[in-house]
Specification:
The protein is mainly β and about 150 residues long. It contains one helix and six strands, in the order E-E-H-E-E-E-E. The protein has one domain: Roll (Thiol Ester Dehydrase, Chain A), CATH 3.10.129.10. Helix content is about 15%, strand content about 40%. Strands 1-2-4-5-6-3 form a six-stranded antiparallel β-sheet, covered by helices on one side.
């Protein structure tokens, strides 16, 4: 079992991913029910807009990077999400979907200081969202994150 909280600077309800299904050097598959959680901080007026699935994809990317670093004996490397591109959404909101969402992310580019991944979010085999996310290494300000 993967300790996801140790791989992300996010804490508490800001963690969108609950478990790692599988991963290898080139990608990761994760799963979560956080889209249904009433305390999800991305909700507005009780709804979770599908556009926020980009954050789920970004967290899957960050978890994958953390697992790769851990496997190489390197520490977690804080980063900032710098872009979301080619975002495609199949519906407006997702909080009413029963069961888990599956988030798959695949490395497109990885350097020591920047990463780009493509991601796909599915529910019960149907595609809900897809796109690309990019991040750049960035030290966290004092007092933020871990």
């Amino acid at each position: 079992m993967t300790d996801i909280a140790s791989l992300l600077p996010h804490v508490g309800t800001a963690l969108m991913i609950e478990r790692v299904v599988r991963w290898d050097e080139t990608g990761i598959v994760t799963a979560t029910t956080r889209h249904r959680a009433a305390d999800n901080p991305l909700r507005h007026a009780g709804r979770l807009a599908a556009v926020h699935l980009a954050e789920f994809g970004a967290q899957a990317m960050a978890i994958h990077g953390g697992l790769r670093n851990r496997a190489a004996g390197m520490p977690m490397q804080p980063a900032l999400l710098v872009s979301v591109r080619d975002l495609e959404l199949a519906r407006a909101h997702v909080e009413d979907l029963a069961g888990e969402l599956e988030i798959a992310a695949r490395v497109l580019l990885a350097t020591p200081s920047s990463w780009q991944y493509e991601f796909v979010v599915t529910h019960d085999g149907a595609r809900l969202a897809s796109g690309r996310v990019a991040a750049m290494a960035h030290a966290l300000p004092a007092g933020q994150g871990r």
